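User: Structure tokens for this complex, please. No commentary.
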Amino acid sequence: MAAVSSPPADLSAALVLQPVTALDWLVVLPVAWCIGIGAVLMMVRHRTFLQPLIAVAALGVLAGLDAALLWHVAQTGPVTMVMGRWLPPFGIAFTVDLMGALFALMAAVVALAGAVAAVTDINDSGRRYGFYPLLMLLMAGVSGAFLTGDVFNLYVWFEVLLISSFGLLVLGAEREQIDGAVKYGFLNLVATTLFLIATGYLYGIFGTLNMADIAAKAGPLRETAPLTTLIALFVFAFAMKAAAFPVNFWLPASYHTPRIVVSALFAGLLTKVGIYALIRVSVMLFPFERRELSLVIAVVGALTMITGALGALAQTDTRRLLGYLVISGIGSMLAGIALGGPGGIGGAVFYALHSMVVMTALYLAAGLAARFGGGFSLAALGGLYARHALFSALSLMLFFAVSGLPPFSGFWPKVMLVKAALDSGAWWLAAALLFTGFLTMIATGRLFLIAYWRPAGAPTLQVAVPATALLPLMALTAVSVLIGLFPETLLGLVQKAALTLDEPSAYLHSVFPAGSAP
Amino acid sequence: MEPVFALLTGIFLTIAIYLMMSKFIIRMLIGVAILGNAVNLLIFTSGRIMREVPPVIGPGLDVPAGPVANPLPQALILTAIVISFSFFAFLLVLSWRAYSTLGTDNTDEMRVAEPDDAPLPPLGY
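Assistant:
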């Protein structure tokens, strides 16, 4: 066989020829780590004692990795790593900017708290059915979605986290869970399929799926291609994933059915991935189209926050009440996206980070309240303050935080959003934000009044609560209080993140150091 | 060629949406299966259809000799097929469990998680 050789080609246009520096490995490490540990946990599936130890340690490491990544990105700007040495736009690129790194870090913190809380909440049977491996895969999907720089890859991570969330949702296979999972499953599948449809059209128009490439090519195409229709499809798909009114019915149907730790993780992680994707696509890739659609997004946001808060007022089950508060928060983030600018986008990112911590903590608090008070129904709960003063104090702080009162974490994003709304003349949006805060205060205030201050109806047995149950709640509340008291660092970071999104030249430069794509 | 495929995608989507609006899970499942195929066709058409040689680089060459079909949509569809198949399998099992546990495949009657007659929260202290 004669070896036919052509002259050696210049590969530098298509392949990375330099070895990747150790720091840049941080870009893909969170995802690879989660998948690897997920596999290890799968292998020790029957060692129910070992699983939480490995998972908690691994999530601690993940938080460390994400913190290092955030530090690296804050120092040097967006960082890119490509798969299989193929340069973008040929290969899949992972590109991390400040927003992605912030979201990834907060997600890891929330997951760590959830894993610690699960030590007492998930029994041996739940562990054998794979709670911890599924949690790690969920984190792989969430981290991947936050770190990727490719639209189709984003879809894949959406599916990874969705399939893991299915597994977590039906853990236990009770009647309620099956019922909730049917609605959650079908509606979420429709939402991700809509996302895929939009991605197909995007590829048809642009011929590329790399985000930086799209952002660079959107300008010239704006005159000829139906970009507003395309972005409207994306907004619809992500709004459904984020549980925006009126496509949010999967959330109140399902979020109260799984184990409380699973609810807490879902509330902290899943809808925020939808918001993240919406910000990424609408703000960074298609800023002009976002402006065209801003009124629609603003109206949807206002309706989401108000219907969410009203829904919370009408609930008897504490978990369902919290589910509506999750929806209400999504409305505030949508308002920020509609407003745009450093104030609006920064406010939306800040609100999302705050909501991740606080909603998770609130669900964990509801779980503890059920353990102390014997259930989730407001009709039965009572006397929690008499039983555990420290727990009640933590809960009250979280109630204040979710209502947006100072000095907790919910206050600052609300200030940013209201200010941005007033600056751009959308007084009605500012009014909706404040009215929502008021309604949320009533809902959570009544919860505190009835479940905590009202004397217990029937004397219940004293329940011993191990430290692992109270510790994550304390830690998350501490995070909320710290953000509320010392917002400077985070405020600076989110505003810088919003500026990077507004003017993505640093992002583009990180993907295409030599200028734009061929 | 593309208009034919676009039309076919439209028909698939119409059938899928019609089926998914049913209240019976089994019809929704068939709708989901067709929806997945509609999207695959859509991606395929988006990548432009060419009756050209397969995208294989000949021996000793660094680039294909002439115009070749676009390989990327096929890779995307392959991914989407795997994903939609696994989802369909999960939903199929879930629907079976729902039917055997809840005793119905009518979503109107699935009110276990959200009871029709949920009590109001306490109105007084």
